[in-house]
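Try this one yourself first.
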């Protein structure tokens, strides 16, 4: 597998500033979704694709997952909402490649917290840094932090409640898991326990120990001990497909790259890792439905 993009502090400033300013050309249709009254702390409630080519990303993800898209803009800036059926699943944010040629295309998850300001303060106290200070957006408040290993994650508090577990139930084309690739899973677990309020627990899996991050008894994310020195710590976004091998081949035919092919030695052949045409890494996970 190729090395995922390195963390960049300043590159997140533009996307989150964009989110603060953007509003849909028309109100998003939320009729197919339901929301919790209380925050579902620890749940990944949104994902943004930061990409160097929004049009290429729209073609790729539309053809791979059947997503449809709605554009938003303000001040000449673009933000694209992606839907799987009647559920909004992600946003797409354009970013320019810097002069040094570094590729910053990536998936950025947002985890629900009780209080964004407090979570940011706890992140700094625990050794993290702030990529983007807390700021208001259309439906709540967000921030972005960088953990002590350099992995970036967003923090969110919604004014309308979090998408509930019925709305985000596993189905092809939806985000079904989020996982931190970490060089020190124990230290990472302690950091996210302090920042988000997770309960971390070690479970034995084929290939070694895996760390589940739970809240209120529900597993919300995981930590995988990094198997390769060639990979930087990064949060990985898993999207469900019926057949990961076929989906990986389809991704490649659409201009993506297979980084890890389906193998019985990796999660019993249930996943593949690919990069989209702009270099953003994602995991294709066999759907449970």
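Now uncover the answer:
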């Amino acid at each position: 597998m190729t090395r995922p993009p390195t963390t960049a502090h300043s590159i997140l400033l533009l996307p989150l500033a964009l989110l603060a300013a953007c509003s849909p050309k028309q109100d998003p249709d939320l009729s197919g979704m339901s929301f919790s009254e209380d925050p579902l702390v620890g749940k990944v409630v949104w994902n943004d694709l930061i990409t160097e080519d929004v049009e290429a990303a729209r073609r790729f993800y539309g053809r791979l997952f059947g997503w449809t898209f709605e554009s938003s803009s303000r001040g000449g800036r673009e933000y694209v909402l992606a839907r799987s059926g009647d559920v909004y699943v992600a946003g797409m944010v354009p970013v320019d490649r810097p002069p040094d040629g570094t590729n910053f295309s990536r998936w950025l998850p947002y985890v629900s917290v009780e209080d964004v300001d407090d979570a940011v303060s706890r992140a700094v106290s625990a050794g993290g840094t702030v990529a983007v200070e807390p700021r208001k957006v259309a439906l709540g408040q967000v921030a972005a932090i960088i953990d002590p290993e350099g992995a970036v994650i967003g923090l969110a508090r919604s004014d309308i409640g979090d998408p509930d577990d019925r709305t985000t139930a596993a189905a092809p084309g939806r985000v079904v898991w989020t996982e931190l690739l970490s060089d020190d899973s124990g230290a990472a677990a302690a950091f996210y326990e302090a920042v988000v309020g997770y309960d971390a627990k070690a479970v034995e899996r084929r290939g070694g120990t895996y760390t589940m991050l739970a809240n209120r008894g529900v597993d919300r994310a995981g930590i995988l001990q990094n198997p390769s020195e060639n990979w930087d710590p990064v949060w990985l976004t898993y999207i469900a497909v019926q057949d990961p091998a076929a989906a990986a081949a389809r991704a490649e035919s659409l201009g993506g790259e297979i980084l890890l092919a389906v193998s019985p030695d990796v999660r019993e052949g249930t996943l593949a890792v690919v990069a989209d045409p702009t270099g953003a890494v994602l995991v294709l996970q066999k759907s449970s439905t």
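Discussion: The two ends are 28 Å apart (CA to CA). The helical segments are 13-21, 54-65, 116-125, 185-196, 244-253.
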